[in-house]
Automatic annotation (TrEMBL):
Pfam families: FA_desaturase. InterPro entries: FA_desaturase_dom, Fatty_acid_desaturase. The keyword DNA-binding does not apply. This is Beta-carotene ketolase. PANTHER family: DELTA(5) FATTY ACID DESATURASE C-RELATED (PTHR19353:SF19), FATTY ACID DESATURASE 2 (PTHR19353). Keywords: Membrane, Transmembrane, Transmembrane helix. Residues 136-236 form the Fatty acid desaturase domain. The lineage of its organism: Bacteria, Pseudomonadati, Pseudomonadota, Alphaproteobacteria, Rhodobacterales. The chain crosses the membrane at residues 12-35, 42-62, 82-100, 140-158, 164-182.
Amino acid sequence: MSETARRFPSSSLLGAALAAGVICAWIALHVFAVWHLEAADAPLLAIACLIVLTWLSVGLFIVAHDAMHGAIVPGSPRMNRAFGTVALLLFAGFSWRKLIVKHMAHHRHAGTDDDPDFSHGGPVAWYIDFVRTYFGWREFWVLGSSVILYALILGPRWPYVAFWAVPSILASMQLFIFGTWLPHRPGHDAFPDRHNARSTRFGDPLSLLTCFHFGGYHHEHHLYPSVPWWRLPSTREKGGA
C-alpha cells in the first residue's frame, strides 16, 4: 500500500457510487432536457437545466480524471478505465487513451514547456491551446456524427441537442479557468514547490461548485494525485500544503 493510500484511505464502494451518481444524474437530466423539456413554455427551467448540466459535465470530466489516477475503484484498472471511458464519451466524445497520456505528462512536467496543459499566452490564447490539445479530428467526427444522429432521431426537436453541446463547451471553460489557468498561471504569486501549482482556496462550497475541489485544492491534488475529488479537503486537514 502506498503512503498516500495509508494517509488518505478511500472507499471503492463510495467512489464507484459517487462516480455512477454523477454519470446517472447527467444522463437523466440530459434525457429530460433533450426529449421532454419545452423550453419556450418554461424558460427558467431551461436555463436551470443548462446550468446544472454544465456543472454535471464538469463532474463527468472529474470522474474521468479520477479514473486516470486509479482513484474511483483503487486497485482495479479495468473498473477505472470503464468509468473514465463512459464519462469522457458523454462529456464530448473524448478518447480515454489520448487524455490519460497527456494528463500524466501534465503531472510529470507541470508548468513547463513539456506540459501539454501549459501555455505562455494570456487566458484566451491559453484556452484555445487547451482546446486544441484535447479536441482533434477524432473528436470532431465523433461529435459531428452524434449531432447528425440526434437530428435524425429528434426531428423537429433537433435544436435541443444544444442541451448537450452548450453545457460541454461551458464546462470546458469552467474546467480551464478553475482547474488549469488559476492554479498554474505564472507570475500571479509564488508557487509553493516544484509542482508549479497553487490552490485557489475559495472555501469548500465554492470549490465544489466551480471544479469539484480541483481548483480549491489543486496543489493538494498534485501532492496526492491518487486522492479522489471528494477526499481532497481532508488532505489539507492532514497536512497538505
